[in-house]
Amino acid sequence: MSNDILVIAEHLDGKVADISYEMTGKARELAAALGGKVTVALLGQGMAGQAGGFASDATLVIDDPALANFNPEAYGRVIAALIAARAPRLTMLGSTSSGMDLTAWLAVRSSLPCVASVNQLAAEGDELRISSQIYGGKVAAQVSPEGGRAVVAVMAGAFPAAAGRGAGPVEQSASPVSLDGLRVTFSKLIRPEAGDIDITTYDKLVSVGRGIGGQENIELAQELAGALGAALSGSRPIIDAGWLPKTRQVGKSGLSVKPKLYLMLGISGAPEHLEGMKDAELILAVNSDPKAPIFDVAHYGSTCDLFEVTEALLEALG
Amino acid sequence: MKIVVAIKQVPSLADEVELNAEGTNLDFDAVDFVLNEWDEQAIEQAVLVKEAGSGAVTVIGVDATGELDGVLHTALAKGADAVAKVAGEFEPGLTSHAQARLLSSAIIDMAPDLVLTGVQAPDDLDGQLGPMLAALMDLPYVGVVNSVQVSGRTATVHKEYAGGLMAEFSVQLPAVIGIQAASQPPRYAPVSKVRQLAKTATIEEIETAEDELESGLSVRSMTRPVSVGHADMIAGDAKAVAGRIIAILNERGLI
Ligand SMILES: Cc1cc2nc3c(=O)[nH]c(=O)nc-3n(C[C@H](O)[C@H](O)[C@H](O)COP(=O)(O)OP(=O)(O)OC[C@H]3O[C@@H](n4cnc5c(N)ncnc54)[C@H](O)[C@@H]3O)c2cc1C
Ligand SMILES: Nc1ncnc2c1ncn2[C@@H]1O[C@H](COP(=O)(O)O)[C@@H](O)[C@H]1O
């Protein structure tokens, strides 16, 4: 085992994602405490131009046509080989769509412990202290890997990106393993359909969650949005139920919004939702559960029934 | 087409989640258990794949709550063809590693063409089940998937990224797929049908020899999240709340 930290950088649609810098910044701090080095691995094709921007001890560019787009099988093989060869103390991936395919797989393959949904990391003496957000953000678990080593999935936005930007030296390398005979093949990217409004351009959003109860109540929320001059958005379950189009989804697998007003009706504040709206200028949350995680993030809150508050708002706005 | 869906029950988040006296886990006596919502999506997607082609769906879980049978009967009512559980005495709070070891040993013997599971569960502290099953069974894995179409020995899946962007992959079967959402909302199972199945259905019990069930993590504590801030809570009834909200919006020139 070394005291080094391996950060798996991430890119989407040709651009390195912020989570890569967020992890690198935290890795710097941990490596300094543990006396190790930070290696960032950037897998892809033609990504070398963006590899020089990390505050790493080394950024390893692994260039291969089979890595041009994320492919869980190809990426998994390469990263498993890096872990086997380098025995890093800590391997960091994003708790993102691609990172979630890899983290637990790599942990089992490498016989290492895994921690999901990580939002805090520290080294105390020689021990890694890791916090994970579970149960929809209602519980924080503090854990340590028994053998000292771990593979972790880091939540987007948990650490500042600025600390991970720098000009670490870049090394180019071919894939350390064969990428022949893959059973998973990337076919194409599918872009969202245009046609609906773009909620990211609105100053004011009224956003509804599962507390809205049924499709028949969407109209009421739409009425409130109309009265406030806001657009109507929603949490993932509302979109999955087909009550609002995908274009209205806020969060990890939806859109990130930063409106002047984000008025939330019946949304619990799961980490995946917070990812898309926590930077809104004014967050007002109506949720009947006083322990709902959203109240840790909102500026103003009420535990009144969302329907009563909506009716009262509509009445007051005339 | 043999389709297997691996499921688990998790504490309901609609209610308060109580911690145990030691502060090392939930107080499982004080929670209600529900089917992991993404497993519900996985069951729906499995039934849709079957209906679009042919085959049979088996739903399997580890009974850690003593209440899994009800979930399995509901799965049958929604269109599963068979249900099974891993034999043994288990307690709530089984880690993902334990679930994955137990389920993979049981599933491998079923020689499945397609294994579906929810992309994550609210209690996934030590990782997600799907990728672990894939690693243990040496099958390919793609997760965060919102549609699965099977043609011959290939599944075409759509994986979601942020902002509505998706990737299409073709995956050679057998494979494990982590479902984010089924291609249509889960169907409703009539209570009468579930009740009747509870009387007549058989749940297969599968023996496994797994005993390596540790996650390799030591849990120092579980707590409520320490928040940096808290919302300023507006007191009063709905009318008072609406009045205050309007005052706040006025102050900031938002209306
Ligand atoms: C890979 C992945 C990606 C995801 N991406 C996203 C994403 O982009 N966006 C997203 O939102 N989620 C996403 N999720 C889902 C996320 O984990 C949560 O399940 C979801 O955000 C919960 O939505 P909710 O708050 O509307 O529902 P719930 O968590 O069920 O909350 C409903 C709330 O309504 C309150 N309520 C009920 N009735 C009333 C009433 N009458 N008055 C007032 N309050 C009431 C309840 O107290 C409760 O807090 C993702 C999950 C995964 C696994
Ligand atoms: N009208 C409502 N009033 C209170 N809670 C609700 C209402 N509708 C749904 N919920 C809550 O929303 C969540 C999802 O419920 P369901 O849509 O039944 O799966 C649960 O937390 C319910 O308690």
| Class based on secondary structure composition and strand pairing of chain B | alpha/beta
Within the CATH hierarchy, at the fold level, what is the topology of the largest domain in chain A? Rossmann fold
Terminal-residue CA separation of chain A: 68 Å
> How many discrete structural domains of chain B?
1
Helix content of chain B: 25-40%
Strands of the biggest beta sheet of chain A: in what spatial order?
9-8-7-10-6-1-4-5-11
The low-confidence runs of chain A, each spanning 5 or more residues with pLDDT under 50, are none
| Total of domains of chain A | 2
Any idea of the CATH class of the largest domain in chain A?
Alpha Beta
Q: Radius of gyration of chain A, Cα only, in angstroms?
A: 22 Å
Concise description?
Chain A is of the alpha/beta class. In chain A, 24% of the residues lie in helices and 28% in strands.
Q: Would you kindly provide a written description of the structure presented here, covering whatever features stand out?
A:
- By secondary structure, chain A is an alpha/beta fold.
- In chain A, 24% of the residues lie in helices and 28% in strands.
- Chain A is built from seven helices and 17 strands.
- Chain A has helices at 18-34, 72-86, 99-109, 218-228, 236-240, 271-274, 306-317, and strands at residues 5-8, 11-12, 15-16, 38-44, 58-63, 90-94, 114-124, 127-134, 139-145, 150-154, 170-173, 184-190, 204-208, 231-234, 261-265, 283-286, 300-302.
- In chain A, helix 2 (72-86) crosses helix 3 and helix 4 runs parallel beside helix 7 (306-317).
- The radius of gyration of chain A is 22 Å and the shape is elongated.
- The N and C termini of chain A lie far apart (68 Å).
- Chain B is an alpha/beta fold and 255 residues long.
- Chain B has a nine-stranded mixed β-sheet with strand order 9-8-7-10-6-1-4-5-11, with helices on both faces. Chain B has a two-stranded antiparallel ribbon with strand order 2-3.
- In chain B, helix 2 crosses helix 5 (191-200) and helix 3 (96-108) crosses helix 4 (129-137).
- At the A-B interface, helix 3, strand 7, strand 8, strand 9 and strand 12 of A face helix 3, helix 4, strand 7, strand 8 and strand 9 of B.
- Strand 17 of chain A pairs parallel with strand 13 (232-233) of chain B, so a sheet runs across the interface.
- The complex binds flavin-adenine dinucleotide and adenosine monophosphate (AMP).
